[in-house]
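Pasting as-is:
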Amino acid sequence: MVENRKGYDIIIHTILVLVCICCIAPFLLLISSSFTAENSLIKDGYFFFPREFSLEAYQFLLSDNSIFRAYGVTILLTLVGTALNLMITTLIAYPLSIRDMPGRNLVNFYVFFTMLFAGGLVPTYMMWTQIFHIKNTFAALLFPSLLTNGFTIMMMRSYFQQNIPAEVLESARIDGANEFYILFKIVIPMSLPIMATIGLMAGLAYWNDWSNNLYYITDSNLNSIQGLLNRMLTNAQYINQTATMGNVGTASVPTTAVRMGVAVLGAVPILCIYPFFQKYFVKGMTMGAVKG
């Protein structure tokens, strides 16, 4: 029995090591490619160690000082957006977790309906720009599509229902506590795993978002890091195409390496902080599931 157990553990650990390698290898290849000369990438392809080391991609990306301002905008956006996302999601999910709340089914249907249907890009753009007038403001990066969503509301509601004992809440009500006191003093302290999970999801969404920047921002001072990197990549491709078509003797931009550098600059900050939230993320996802 012990020998069978050891053989089973060896197989499982081997599979996990292979899965980890499959997850890590592409990112290592990405980093290596971003430090490889463009000619080497075109001629030799991609390798885990640069055949011809070069900083051309990062020199091009960091040549514009606005990239540091864009990082500042994105950090502020991620912090404010994540906090507001958690606040709004919690304030909607908690009442929906109370089974005898009047109108609960109607609100549940409304939240679920938003998961199935959306207004579309054109009506959404017209609403935000012509009614709310948020174009070229910080609100344009903050509000559209990212402030909350039906999926996270439903996930938090399920967590409250399955992991917060109803007896504890009822006892607090009998002692005279109001719903806000119960929420902030009892429910939220008992819900840190789901808070960390949804906070991480919201933070990733804000950090990686480039579409709001593309649709609503033309002021360069408000560019987020993803929006700025996307525009720089587009500019690099345009410069190369123009030089090729016009037979212009301009120094070529390392388009392929720049593409890899864009991915690295956009992903590294999040990768650095993710390990600190991974424990809560996994716990929140699993504890929100249906108990057996």
